[in-house]
């Protein structure tokens, strides 16, 4: 399957260099997420992981220089069923809906390949959820963030509050920003530990930097990259002894790859390695 065939109503997909895919959010004017968009987002990453051939790194950005995403489209947000007066049944229905929403936005974490968020302009509410589920976050210097959910009377429920304690090295600042919904700059996001790099400029500059990083990752052994991603994610959620056990099991298989010999030869020869895809071509 050609990755460009995965483009949909509000998601433009392109292969910008060998094994590197760019996913661009295009729902004007501000990439506000309705249910159709968040379901399409999750389905896209599932297809990139299972149906597209030999994807090794993905960059997510916005088509609109002034907005990464304005978050949830409140005009289209699903509310409780007003015809159902039983609180337990309403709660069960809403729980299912929220879990489907969470599952879709977190799909990048379950992919074998790394996903890089190239954040620029305003990034509100769901923008933080979405980028938290990516492996790496780069921000343009013009990026501004807000964990906005407090201002609409709810706790962020699609991933921000789950991820931030794992991501940040400054929980005091994380709590302050989550409790107040105050805007914070790209520099503050870096201080928080939310982004790993601030790129001077806007959309074009941060996208270029993220794509360059994606190319570097795509040149490495996909066996080594997916193993590293799985082991890091496992380490985040488990103890050191549990992770070491998991690593031993994982690498007992992965160490048998031919990619090791090719990686060593490529490094000695100061060339880019030649690696096969993780999965056969469909």
TrEMBL record:
<dbReference type="GO" id="GO:0006635">
    <property type="term" value="P:fatty acid beta-oxidation"/>
</dbReference>
<dbReference type="InterPro" id="IPR029045">
    <property type="entry name" value="ClpP/crotonase-like_dom_sf"/>
</dbReference>
<keyword id="KW-0276">Fatty acid metabolism</keyword>
<dbReference type="InterPro" id="IPR014748">
    <property type="entry name" value="Enoyl-CoA_hydra_C"/>
</dbReference>
<dbReference type="GO" id="GO:0005739">
    <property type="term" value="C:mitochondrion"/>
</dbReference>
<keyword id="KW-0413">Isomerase</keyword>
<dbReference type="Pfam" id="PF00378">
    <property type="entry name" value="ECH_1"/>
</dbReference>
<protein>
    <submittedName>
        <fullName>Uncharacterized protein</fullName>
    </submittedName>
</protein>
<keyword id="KW-0443">Lipid metabolism</keyword>
<dbReference type="InterPro" id="IPR001753">
    <property type="entry name" value="Enoyl-CoA_hydra/iso"/>
</dbReference>
<dbReference type="InterPro" id="IPR045002">
    <property type="entry name" value="Ech1-like"/>
</dbReference>
<comment type="similarity">
    <text>Belongs to the enoyl-CoA hydratase/isomerase family.</text>
</comment>
<comment type="pathway">
    <text>Lipid metabolism; fatty acid beta-oxidation.</text>
</comment>
<dbReference type="GO" id="GO:0051750">
    <property type="term" value="F:delta(3,5)-delta(2,4)-dienoyl-CoA isomerase activity"/>
</dbReference>
């Amino acid at each position: 399957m050609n990755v460009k065939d995965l483009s949909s109503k509000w998601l433009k997909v392109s292969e910008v260099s060998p094994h590197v895919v760019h996913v661009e959010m295009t729902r004007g004017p501000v990439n506000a997420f309705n249910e159709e968009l968040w379901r399409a987002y999750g389905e896209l990453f599932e297809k990139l992981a299972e149906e597209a051939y030999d994807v090794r790194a993905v960059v997510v950005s916005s088509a609109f220089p002034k907005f990464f995403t304005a978050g949830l489209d409140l005009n289209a947000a699903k509310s409780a069923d007003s015809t159902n007066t039983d609180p337990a049944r309403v709660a069960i229905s809403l729980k299912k809906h929220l879990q489907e929403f969470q599952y879709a936005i977190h799909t990048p974490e379950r992919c074998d390949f790394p996903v890089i968020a190239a954040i620029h302009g305003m990034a509100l509410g769901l923008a933080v959820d979405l980028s938290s589920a990516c492996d790496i976050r780069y921000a343009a210097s013009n990026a501004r963030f807000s964990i906005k959910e407090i201002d609409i009377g709810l706790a962020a429920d699609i991933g921000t509050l789950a991820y931030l304690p794992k991501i940040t090295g400054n929980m005091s600042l994380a709590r302050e920003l989550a409790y107040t919904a105050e805007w914070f700059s790209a520099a503050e996001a870096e201080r928080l530990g939310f982004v790993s790099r601030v790129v001077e400029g806007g959309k074009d500059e941060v996208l270029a930097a993220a794509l360059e990083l994606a190319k570097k990752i795509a040149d490495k052994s996909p066996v080594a990259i997916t193993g590293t991603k799985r082991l890091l994610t496992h380490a985040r959620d488990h103890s050191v002894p549990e992770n070491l056990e998991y690593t031993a099991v994982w690498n007992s298989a992965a160490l048998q790859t031919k990619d090791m010999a090719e990686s060593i030869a490529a490094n000695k020869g100061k060339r880019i390695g030649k690696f096969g895809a993780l999965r056969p071509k469909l």
